[in-house]
Amino acid sequence: MRTPSRDPHEKPYPTPGPRDRHRLYERAVQDPDADIAILDRVLRGRPAHSLREDFSGTAALAARWVQRGPERTALAVDLDPAVHDWARTYRLPTLGAAAKRLRLLTADVREVRGRFDAIVAFNFSYGVFRTRAALLGYLRAARRGLAPGGAVVLDAFGGWDAQKELVERRRLGGGVTYVWEQQRFDPVTHRIRCAIHFEFARGRPMRRAFEYEWRLWSLPELTELLAEAGFDDVEVLWDVSAGVTARYLPRASARNHAGWIAYVVGRRRV
Description:
Layout: H1 21-29, H2 32-43, E1 50-54, H3 60-67, E2 73-78, H4 81-91, E3 102-106, E4 116-121, H5 132-144, E5 146-158, E6 166-173, E7 176-185, E8 191-200, E9 206-215, H6 219-228, E10 233-239, E11 248-250, E12 260-267
Parallel strand pairs: 1-2, 1-4, 2-3, 4-5
Antiparallel strand pairs: 5-12, 6-7, 7-8, 8-9, 10-11, 10-12
Helix pairs in contact: 2-3
């Protein structure tokens, strides 16, 4: 992908510091190109121009979407104005003309107007809806926000490790280690409390850079709620790869293992 051309006399783009928590989160957790590959598979070759990224955070996916072509537009929706302030400071200046096709909206994702070819809620963010009624309300609102032929895509995680108290570490390079901590899981309510920390080769660690209080939704719950919300075609995309690179295909059943990530898709025909 080409970087937007710049006047050599312009001031450099502002860049976040090496310990900026949003920058670290994007390095550790997000892969917009892989997310768009999932969307391409979900949309089955249908031309898609408009994307709504719910719970968008710093709008990494929405930004990459508009970079993919001049016909593409995106709306990034989040309740937290701080993450959109970050995006206005550090992300929009890097997009060149494409920045005009990315809109940042600070709002409740259930109250957004407009029609979109695809709506995504990634990084398990919809887990903030902890009751069946609340999640169903969101999914119904999302369906209303789809153009005919469009799709809503959620990611989900599970496996027996998902219900454990655990700490996992992964090196990001440059002396930074990403730490995922599952602090508590309640088997009665399926509420899970998690946190992200960052450790550095030098200096103090960044404890609780991000904290989450989610409901851990199961795949049957998600597919049933999508159907109840009125989606015409609901499926689960399961990782069928045996290696490092994930390969997601529709599956009606799968073998459980310690930790998995899947995608749940709801399509609107008309």
